[in-house]
Each structure stands twice: as C-alpha cells, then as structure tokens.
Amino acid sequence: MNSEQELKDVVRDKYSRIAHQGKVENASSCCGATTPSNKVYNIMMDDYTGTDGYMEDADLGLGCGLPTQFARIQKGDVVIDLGSGAGNDCFVARHETGAEGKVIGIDFTPAMIEKARLNAEKLQYHNVEFRAGDIDDMPVNDDVADVIVSNCVLNLVPNKEKVINEIFRVLKPGGHFSISDIVLVGDLPEALKQDAEMYAGCVAGAIQKDEYLGQIEKSGFEEITLQKEKPITIPDDILSKYLSPEDMATFNNGNTGIYSVTVYAEKPRGSQQKPKVSLAELQASDCSPGSGCC
C-alpha cells in the first residue's frame, strides 16, 4: 500500500466527491467510496431515521454504527465528533448536550466542512462548530471534551495509534468515548488489502479486532467495553472487481470476518497530560555537565 500521506490524499479525494453524492448512492457502496453495487445494499450503515436530532441533509450514509446512541452524553457536555462529515452525528449529539453544551466536528475534507457548516446554519445552531484538521493531530487543546464520538472513521487513518493517543489527550480526566469502526478477524486477501479504493471504502484500512482493542488499552484507557458488534458482508458484485471466482469462494467460506464494532472506554480521572516543552525552552535550559538536570 502507499505511504501515510498518499493514503490520506486518496481518502480526502474520495470523500470530497462523496460530499456531493446522495445517501442512496453512498449506501450501496462500501462507505460511499467504492463503485456502487448493482443492487441496493446497506452494507455498513445503521438507520438513523427516528433518532432525536437527526437531520436528513446531513446523513450521507457513511457510518457503520450509531455511536451517539451509546455515548452517554449529558446536558452541558462538550462533545467532539471525529470525521464529522456533513454533521450527522454532531446534530444528534447536540440534541443530547442541549443549547448549554458544545459540539465540535473535525474533518479534513474541505467539501465536508462546507456542507456541515451550511447544515448548522439551516438549523440555527450556535453551539455546533466544524474545524478543519486531521484527527491524528486535532486542532483542539488538552482536556477539552467530556465525550468523543466517531462513526466509521479511524479505519481510514493510517496511524491509528496516533489517533487513539490524540483522543486520550483531548478528553478531560474522567471523560469517555464511544466509537463505531470496522475491524477484522483473520486476514483479508492481498488484492483487497492493497487496493486504494477498498482502503477509502473502510475495508483495507481496518486492523485486527484484538490489535484495535489492545491499542486502546495501551493508550491508558479503562473500562473498555464492546457495546455492539455486527458482521459486514461485501456483496459479490463488489468483490468480483478484485477477486477471481475461486478466490471469492475461498474468502466467503473462510475464517475472515469483517465487523462493525462500537467501543466504549474512559480516560482515568487522575490522568494528567505531560507538560509540553518548546524547542526554545529546551535550548534555553542549562543541561551542561554538573547542572543536575541530566
């Protein structure tokens, strides 16, 4: 597969186009990124209709779960949505946090930010903000969020460890996240793993379920809970673009599983961020022999 930056460019390009597609077209592909299937499949998405705060214009059919349903958002909370797209989960979260809270959506696709801001203006929400930026380097200070949500986005980021560490950084001590994502059990065929379109389609970028949960634990989170899990099936007419009939049969009858999971975890209440030291401070410090600093 390509370098981290090349993968990010592929995803940004795909999701710029997705911003101008309809929900039906997105729902019949893998996270909206692959060529639509010739049948209408809801391959990954869950149905938001009927969810309080739902806005149809903000629902591009790109998710693989309902993280806000499990996120335990309280009135007045500060909520951050990673990979906020057209704003769907932000507006559902805003219903939960109320006018006294704040919701921040982060996305690195300019077309999505523009669409989300227009949707917020239609709703006349003054406490929902959309920021352009990478979720592995969030434009947010330390210890800001009570709750973080994300819907089928971490699998699109090459460096998942960095994202999870960023989540830990921006959560307040005692804060928590509820994140829906795609994970694997068993190995994908090489043809799927190496394809940029399948990466943008949320499949090739997914990592092993055990590795995913292990990284969350390694980052310092506690009370890690699998809130929901469902299998994902890729239709044969999409698989046939990448695999021979024999390879398709092996894949469909093998031990590889693709799953949508919703994971909850808490940042310990006693957590403190490590103080950041600037280059100027380092250069100005006296670390000569005998100074006692080394």
Question: Could you characterize what this model shows?
Answer:
- The chain has helices at residues 4-18, 23-27, 67-70, 88-97, 110-123, 160-170, 190-193, 196-200, 209-218, 236-239, 245-252, 279-284, and strands spanning 78-82, 102-107, 128-132, 145-151, 171-185, 207-208, 222-231, 257-266.
- By secondary structure, the protein is of the alpha/beta class.
- Strands 1, 2, 3, 4, 5, 6, 7 and 8 form an eight-stranded mixed β-sheet that branches.
- Helix 6 links the parallel strand 4 (145-151) and strand 5.
- The radius of gyration is 20 Å and the shape is globular.
- The chain starts with a helix and ends in a 10-residue tail after the last helix.
Write a concise synopsis of the structure shown:
By secondary structure, the chain is α/β, with parallel strands linked by helices.
